Amino acid sequence: MSLHRRHLILGTAAAALTFAGPVLAQASYPAAKPITIVVSYPPGGDTDAIARMFGDKLSQRLKQTVVIENRPGAGGTIGNGHVGRSAPDGYTLLFTPNPFTTAPMVMGLTPANSYDVLNGFEPIIKTATQPLLLVAHPSVGVKSVPELVAAAKGGKTLSYASPGAGSPMHFLGEWLNRAAGVKISHVPYRGVGPSVTDVVAGHVSTAWVTIGAVSQYINQNRLVPLAIGDANRSKLAPQVPTLVEQGYKDVVVGAWNGFFAPKGTPREVVNLINTNMNAILKEPEVIAKLATYGAEPAGGTPDVLAKTNAAEYAQMAKLMKELNISAN
């Protein structure tokens, strides 16, 4: 064999190995190292608990360790931004509720301190929806939204609690105020838990919450359910009418959660996680566990989450200006 021909063969083989390297590495995903799921909220809340359930299930299916990393602060934007800046290799994922979409605009963050909501991530899957529920303390003496509005117009001093300024519940409360022509005062809390505690105690008249957080109090007649904020009734509280049914056809806001990856994460990785998560969401155990948090499984392709995120961004940007909503 001539020296030239030998060099040509070796050079071709080396090029083939170089080309095959990433492909082989990709094919072995996620064998290289544990997967980290970032949660931009403290441990102990609904988002953290749901993330840990999904992490356990994903670990079992992928046969790889999945670690939950809490990075709370600044309305979730610290953890979200961290994932947006992480390597797009499939080993850092974000599990987040829908304030992911609105937090940067509500908080008025500069681009340097924020993240690109629409183009900075790879959507993986919309995991669940959490219908929002309006509840009242029994002392308010109302059993429907029309009765609540009539009480407000009649001069009764009323308030509504939310888990924070700029939350989906805040948007719903102010949107209903405008649609009904009333001014029910907003009382923001740091999380759903404290807001529920105070409405059960009667310190605030009403609260927009997730169903799982108040189901026990409704069953004990310590809170009165008034309305669902979604367009349709919830399977988890089928007896509660929507705002749409009670005359407010345009007032629709829901909550959701899902998985994102850094922009540029390989499509094969996104599809692998999406396929496994869709299977996880069909497990009876998972469906039952989600119900305890007032959540219903969603699923679908990555495009479902992308469209949900984009539609909410457009809607909430418009409402934020119209309703003068901010985190301040």
The rough form would be described as globular
The main pleated sheet reads as: 6 strands, mixed
Mean pLDDT: 91
Q: Which structural class best describes the helix and strand composition?
A: alpha/beta
Determine the N-to-C terminus distance: 77 Å
Helix content: 40-55%
Give a count of the beta strands, DSSP E runs of length 2 or more.
11
How many structural domains does the protein architecture include?
2
CATH level 1 name of the largest domain: Alpha Beta
Strand content: 15-25%
CATH homologous superfamily grouping of the largest domain = Bordetella uptake gene, domain 1
CATH architecture level-2 label of the largest domain: 3-Layer(aba) Sandwich
Number of helices: 11
What does this structure look like?
The termini are far apart. This protein has helices at 3-27, 46-62, 77-84, 99-107, 145-153, 168-180, 192-201, 211-219, 267-280, 284-292, 302-323; strands at residues 35-39, 66-70, 92-97, 121-130, 132-136, 159-162, 185-188, 206-210, 224-228, 255-262, 296-297. The model is unreliable at 1-26 (pLDDT under 50). The chain has 328 residues and is an alpha/beta fold. The strands form two sheets. It has a six-stranded mixed β-sheet with strand order 2-1-3-10-4-11, sandwiched between helices. The protein is globular and about 65 Å long. α2 (46-62) crosses α9, α4 runs parallel beside α11 and α6 packs across α11 (302-323). The protein has two domains: 32-130 and 255-323, 3-Layer(aba) Sandwich (D-Maltodextrin-Binding Protein, domain 2); 132-228, Periplasmic binding protein-like II (D-Maltodextrin-Binding Protein, domain 2, 3-Layer(aba) Sandwich), CATH 3.40.190.10. It is 44% helix and 18% strand. It is built from eleven helices and eleven strands.
